[in-house]
Amino acid sequence: MNYMYEAHFHTADVSTCAHISAQEAVELYKNAGYSGVVVTDHFTLECFEKKYPGETWKDKVDYFLRGYRNAKKCETETFSVMLGIELRFPENDNDYLVYGVDEQFLYDHEDIVSMTAKQFKKVAEVNQLTVIQAHPFRIDSNITNPRYIDGVEIYNGNKRHDSSNNMAEIWAKKHGFITTSGSDFHEYEDLARGGVSFNRFVKDVKEFRAELLSGKYELKRP
Ligand SMILES: [Zn+2]
Ligand SMILES: [Zn+2]
């Protein structure tokens, strides 16, 4: 398993809680020996109403996509930059890493930020998206009905939160979930704390998702 990917990554270009620009962050991950990142900036109704400027949904998605697009400029033959989202619904403060979306999907789906996890499950099935609950055992999160998710992040590397990763792992095993590891990169101390490693290079998020579904990968957990 020689190809390491960051599965949970924020950019200061978009996420107000993040402190490092997309391009600097990509260079840091290249230097750390990774083969790519999935850019998962926050995708929530609150962000779109209060933090992402723009008159129309299209303007707002344009703003949201800046982090990904700026990171993408640093993509190379040996380093993939992929699009994801960290989605939150109005029903609670749970976060979901969604793998499989593309730019057009986001422009076409203003409705998803107002859904419930239950409603989104159907959208995910139709559009072949993989839904991973991020840090389900953090103090401000609660566990989502296993029917509405495909997996859980069992290692979250962010040091400023206690994600009770051991609890997430037990929960995942009990339900046979897909499991992931991610740094939840927001600042320097988060660099390369987590990730998923595959035995082949993946060039886009479709391939990334296929590797997750194959079950043949390893998790980075320092
Ligand atoms: Zn954040
Ligand atoms: Zn995050």
Model description:
The chain is of the alpha/beta class. The protein has helices at 22-31, 45-51, 57-64, 66-72, 103-108, 117-127, 165-175, 205-214; strands at residues 3-6, 36-39, 42-43, 80-87, 96-99, 130-133, 151-156, 178-182, 195-198, 218-220. It has one domain: Alpha-Beta Barrel (TIM Barrel), CATH 3.20.20. The chain has 8 helices and 10 strands. Helix 1 (22-31) crosses helix 4 (66-72). It is globular, with a radius of gyration of 16 Å. The mean pLDDT is 97. It binds zinc ion (2 copies). One zinc ion (ZN) binds at residues 8, 10, 86, 134, 184.
Looking at this protein, list some descriptive labels:
222 residues, alpha/beta, TIM Barrel, 8 helices, globular, binds zinc ion
By helix and strand content, what is the structural category? Answer: alpha/beta
What is the percent of helical residues? 25-40%
CATH topology: TIM Barrel
- Indicate the overall shape: globular
Uncertain runs are none
Helix count equals 8
CATH superfamily: Metal-dependent hydrolases
